[in-house]
Write a structure and sequence with these properties.
alpha/beta; Enolase-like, domain 1; nine-stranded mixed beta sheet; three-stranded antiparallel beta sheet
């Protein structure tokens, strides 16, 4: 089997203020083969990501056997090394990698979760990501969710910490002792406010404190892990298994949260799960209930739980819906989804110049 074409399409996110995903968000990818099998994947990078997929990555893998997924990942990484290693280039590789895994599972005529050693059909609990207001918690409970995570990046850690304490106390009252509560700081709180909050809300049984500081503030994460009693989580904005290896080996997070569509795709996600399991670190993929993470959650998590997906992505045909706080994978081969032909698919970017620079 040979790859005959690689294409990508950018579907902008709704414009919600100065949000980077308005311009550089999720990126559907499609790989076609001479055997008539088509693979679908999701990356990111917006129009710039389309250019990376349809130029460097397309020229790298076209004509090759899609079965060599890990080898093709390495080739794409090497071809983007000069301008990649993290960020947009790895996001683009993620989409291509997922499409290759989709083909691999379709050739095996299995759902990807089964190919990875898991099973489909079980109900996987989903946790709701919401704003830090009391009405949002109750609405999530009424919809069947038993786990919630407010986004605190919009609150001032110096002046509004008491509001978070009150929210946590109220959320625990509403959810009861068995409900799960996580807090997402959106990289904007800093060490001291987080440590103070940790002491004030520990009694409410919080699962983790997510991204209190910037991803590359290694020393600050070391301090947070040392001083906080609540587990520290992060990794949503990190890329490649090598980077997560450093996080895991240096014990910078108790919970790692790679985004399947950003971190390097399923090839990277499989390696992160392997490294984390060996070190006793928990993996909770960012937006893990999206189909690109849910198969890994079903395959590798002993106690699966996944974050709700991006609400604006409504064009994945065949993706499971959340019902009463749970999702269930189907037995369709591969990821079990397709993208509509009506998307603005691009197959070829601008041709490179005749001589190098």
């Amino acid at each position: 089997m040979k790859i005959t074409n690689v294409s990508a399409a950018f579907v902008p996110a709704p414009k919600i203020g100065p949000f980077w995903q308005n311009w550089l968000g999720q990126l559907p990818v499609r790989i076609e083969t001479d055997a008539g099998i088509t693979g679908y994947g999701m990356g990111a990078g917006g129009s710039a990501g389309v250019a990376v997929v349809c130029s460097v990555l397309r020229s790298t893998i076209r004509g090759q056997d899609p079965a060599n997924v890990e080898q093709l990942w390495r080739q794409m990484y090497e071809m983007t090394m000069a301008f990649g290693q993290k960020g947009l280039a790895i996001m683009a590789i993620s989409g291509v990698d997922h499409a290759l895994w989709d083909i691999r599972a379709k050739v095996a005529d299995k759902p990807l979760a089964e190919l990875l050693g898991g099973k489909v059909g079980q109900k996987i609990p989903i946790y709701a990501a919401l704003l830090a207001d009391h009405e949002g918690v109750q609405k999530a409970i009424d919809q069947g969710y038993r786990a919630v995570k407010p986004q605190l990046m919009y609150l001032n850690p110096q002046t509004e910490r008491n509001e978070v304490v009150a929210w946590a106390k109220d959320a625990r009252r509403r959810l009861g002792p068995d409900g799960k509560i996580m807090l997402d700081f959106g990289m904007r709180w800093g060490v001291e406010p987080t440590v103070k909050l940790d002491a004030e809300i520990y009694e409410h049984g919080i699962e983790w404190l997510e991204e209190p500081v910037w991803p590359d503030e290694w020393e600050e994460y070391e301090e947070l892990v040392r001083r906080c009693r609540i587990p520290i989580a992060g990794g949503e904005h990190e890329f490649t298994a090598k980077a997560f290896e450093r996080i895991i080996d240096h014990k910078l997070h108790h919970v790692v949260q790679p985004d399947p569509s950003w971190c390097g795709g399923m090839t990277t996600l499989v390696e992160i799960y392997r490294k984390a399991k060996a070190a006793g670190v928990k993996v909770r993929p960012h937006r893990g209930s999206e189909i690109w993470g849910l198969h890994a959650v079903a395959a590798f998590d002993d106690e699966p739980m996944a974050e709700m997906g991006r609400g604006w992505i409504d064009y994945e045909e065949g993706a499971p819906k959340t019902e009463h706080g749970y999702k269930t994978l189907s037995n369709r081969p591969g990821y079990g989804v397709e993208f509509p032909k009506s998307l603005n698919w691009v197959s070829e970017a601008l041709s490179p110049p005749s001589s190098g620079g």
